[in-house]
Amino acid sequence: KQTYLTMETINRLKRVALETRALIAWMEKMPFVLGGNLQGGELVVTFPYDRTRSQGVTREQTPTPDEHVFRWLAFSYASTHRLMTDASRRVCHTEDFAKEDGTINGASWHTAAGSMNDFSYLHTNCFELSMYVGCDKFPHESELPEEWENNRESLLVFMEQVHRGIKGVVRDLQGRGISNATISVEGIGHDIRTAADGDYWRLLNPGEYRVTARAQGYSLVTKKCEVGYAIGATRCDFTIGRSNLFRIREIMEKYNKQPIRLPVRQFQAHRPRERRLGT
Question: By its UniProt entry, which SMART domains does this protein fall under (predicted)?
Answer without folding.
Answer: Zn_pept
